[in-house]
Structure prediction request, 559 residues.
Amino acid sequence: MSEQERIQKQRVSRASDAIADVSVDTTKGEQLKADLDELLDEIDEVLEQNAEEFVRNYVQKGGE
Amino acid sequence: MAIAKVLGIETEFGIVGGPDPDPITASSIIVNAYAQQGRTRINWDFEGETPDLDARGLTGLTAFAPVIETHLANTVLANGARLYVDHAHPEYSSPECRTPLEATRFDAAGEEVLRRSLNAANASLAPTDAIALFKNNSDGKGNSYGCHENYLVRRDLPFTDIVRAMVPHFVSRQIIVGAGKVGAETEAAAAAHPDFQISQRAEFFEEVVGLETTLKRPIINTRDEPHGDAERFRRLHVIIGDANMSQYATFVKLGATALALAVLEDEGAATFPPRPRDPVNAVRLFALDPTLRVTVECEDGRRLSAWDLQEQLWTLVGAYVERGGGDAVAGRDEVALILAQWRELLDGVRDDPASVADRVDWIAKQRIIRGYQERYDLTATDARLRAIDLQYHDLRPERSLASRVGLRQLFGSSDIADAVASPPPTTRAFFRGQCVMRYPDQIAAANWDSIVFDLGDGPLQRVPMPDPLRGTAALTAHLFESNSTAIALLAALDG
Prediction:
């Protein structure tokens, strides 16, 4: 293999590594988004129905 | 030489509901609900003298009349913890633990204790009077309540060195252990109009050093109540911290702080990261900047971010551990875990927040708040986002969000149930918990450094425990095995 060929080959393999990285990242990103969507659905189910009243009534005396 | 970093956490829980508007009533119902389940009904003892005997009581026993506060519920649990009404909140003070991992488990046990109390209380209340509990630190309206850490330090360590060494850590650690908050509630922080802050507590700190905990809160609290031999020990009472839902955050918070204190005791304050020139402003600025880019001027003239300060401290502690330090905090494996997690959280919050959303509370909370806001196109001040903030800390299983966001656990439910039922074996809490468990009818009162027995006739007998490292299972388990009654135990201690 000539020096030039070797470099070419390295470039090619680096390029394909990069593509692989990107696709992993995309998959990871999609997975994160899907996980978050599922979580947000669950939050919709358990969130206090009247958020405004819940937040307004949450009054504490200082402590410590 | 660094001394054993005996440590623990006190948490005041937010509370709403109950049969009348006074939160003290609801708090008392919660504490009594636990006590009435037969788990404990022993009063806390407020006697504050410094006795001179250890838990093994190798010399004679002394007797004092206990001072028992009767108007507020106040109990000692079989795991060595204290459960009581503090001001207008139920508070769980964990037993003294020997390592950060153990203290994290007993903090998780505290959540479980309050959850059980809540179930028991609500079973006897009308649905409209149901109580809810929250492990958070502010109501979003300017009222804050605490989550305090305690660390045993050498009495001869100059307090000025503690201030010099620990201020940089206490102002900056929030970037990995902050619990996050929607909006702002003090004038100084509200001026910046933040949508979200890293810390629940940061904006409430107004002094660098001081005795107060409720007004003019200081970064370094000078309360000097060693709950032990005051000649040898100081209890560093750390009031600048958020209550964490993430067990990993609690673990790293305790581990990093304990290791920093060990470095300080062994090597002095000179090598610590520099102090910001205006620490109070630094705490607030760091909290207001989830991008972690803001820098503050430090006493050596450089401008550093919270991340820089944590990075420097991590490096200092890492080198100390490489040289063989760390035994004062925990065994080798646990110290290695502290350093590894501390590092991962630091790198994660800066480079890849999603990678630490399973361990850093403010990242976990910010993720769902942003997500919810984007899904429904809400303004940053929408009540639903504040409700998510609150419910992140909600102890009601059907409302809890922390239990749904995928936080990584350090302990299984059976580890935590064990820590609810029995004390840590490694400190005097073992002796306290065993006594509560075995002789509940003969104990008149107990507190951190003594137990008062009432054997029915004769004077009350106090067993002092001035050394947190005495009264361990190694030193006293055989006494409990061979003495089935309190009378026999006291005779054995006396003999």
About this structure: The first helix of chain B runs from residue 23 to 39.
